[in-house]
Design a protein that fits this description.
Strand order of the largest sheet: 1-2-3-4-5-6-7-8
Radius of gyration: 17 Å
Largest sheet: 8 strands, antiparallel, barrel
Strand content: over 45%
Number of helices: 2
Structural class: mainly beta
Number of strands: 8
CATH architecture: Beta Barrel
CATH class: Mainly Beta
Shape: globular
Distance between the termini: 42 Å
Order of helices and strands: HEEEEEHEEE
Number of domains: 1
Length: about 180
C-alpha cells in the first residue's frame, strides 16, 4: 500500500512539472508577485489514515488551516499556521511552521512543501497532544499578481508520548493572497 502511495505522489509530481511546461502563446505570463512580502494561505485539508485504525485520531480527518507567511523571493516562503482539524475521535488544533518552494515562476507553478508542528488536543492537553511532520507536493495557479489557488498531496505522520504513530495520505486545496 505504501509503495502505491509513493508511486502516486511521484507520478503527481511529474504530471505537475509536465503540465507547467505547456505554452500559451497568446496569453502573457502571469504569476504571483515574486517580491518580498506578506502572504496568507487558507486551505481545506483532509487525510485518510494508512495502516491500522485502532489508535485514536488515526482513521481520517477534515479541516481548515490558515498560514501567514513571508515570501523572501519569487521561489521561497516561510510561515506559521493554525486551524481546526476534525478527526472521527474529536478536534485537534494544529500549530505549525511551513516552508514552501516554488519550482518555477509561471502561471501554473509546481511547488514542494514541508510542515511540522504540534496537534493540540483541547480535550486532553497533556496526554493527547501530538507532534507531526507533513511533506507534500502540489501546484499553484495564479489568477493575478496577488491571488492564486493551490492544491497539494502528501503524507502526514503524527506521534505522541505513549501514543502509537499514525500516518495519513493527505490533500489540501486553498487560496493564496499576496499583500
Amino acid at each position: 500500500m505504501m509503495k502505491k502511495v509513493l508511486l502516486l505522489l511521484v507520478f503527481a509530481g511529474f504530471a505537475a512539472g509536465a503540465s507547467a511546461q505547456l505554452v500559451q502563446p497568446n496569453r502573457p505570463r502571469l504569476s504571483l508577485d515574486g517580491k518580498k512580502g506578506y502572504i496568507t494561505i487558507n486551505e481545506l485539508s483532509f487525510g485518510y489514515g494508512l495502516g491500522g485504525h485502532t489508535t485514536p485520531y488515526s482513521k481520517s480527518y477534515f479541516g481548515f488551516t490558515t498560514m501567514h507567511a513571508f515570501q523572501s523571493n519569487e521561489l521561497f516562503m516561510v510561515g506559521a499556521g493554525t486551524g481546526v482539524l476534525s478527526y472521527r475521535d474529536g478536534i485537534m488544533i494544529p500549530l505549525y511552521l511551513d516552508m514552501r518552494m516554488r519550482l518555477m515562476q509561471n502561471t501554473f507553478a509546481p511547488y514542494l512543501s514541508g510542515a511540522a508542528g504540534l496537534l493540540i488536543n483541547p480535550g486532553d492537553f497533556n496526554g493527547g497532544t501530538r507532534m507531526f511532520i507533513q511533506p507534500s507536493a502540489g501546484g499553484m495557479y495564479s489568477f493575478s499578481r496577488n491571488f492564486a489557488a493551490n492544491f497539494s498531496v502528501g503524507l502526514k505522520i503524527q506521534m505522541g508520548v505513549n501514543i502509537s504513530r499514525a500516518s495519513f495520505v493527505t490533500g489540501k486545496a486553498g487560496v493564496i493572497y499576496k499583500f
